Amino acid sequence: MNFWLKRAATGFFKVFFNQFFQISKGVVLEGNEWL
After folding, report:
1. 3-state SS of the chain?
2. CA 30, CA 28: separation in Å to the nearest integer?
3. In degrees rounded to 5, what are phi and psi of residue 5?
4. Residue 32 CB: number of other CB atoms within 10 A?
5. How far apart are the first and last CA of the chain?
6. What pLDDT is stored for residue 1 in this prediction?
7. How many CB atoms neighbour CB 30 within 10 A?
8. pLDDT at 15 (0 to 100)
């Protein structure tokens, strides 16, 4: 149970941080276009 919980948490955070990174990159690129 603990093993699967750890795997699920790792996968979730990996996806979450990947999405967050993509959004941050998009915001930075859009900000540069506005300047």
Report:
1. CHHHHHHHHHHHHHHHHHHHHHHHHHHHHHHHHHC
2. 5
3. -65, -40
4. 8
5. 51
6. 67
7. 9
8. 96
pTM of the model: 0.56
Q: Whose structure tokens read 């930075």?
A: 28
The span from the CA of 35 to the CA of 22, in Å, is: 20
Compute the distance between CA of residue 16 and CA of residue 9 in angstroms, rounded to an integer.
Answer: 10
Q: What is the reported pLDDT for 31?
A: 77
- In the block, tokens 């276009």 appear at 33
- What are 1-35's pLDDT values in tens digits? 699 999 999 999 999 999 999 999 988 888 777 65
Rounded to whole angstroms, what are the CA distances from 30 to 12, 16, 17? 27, 21, 20
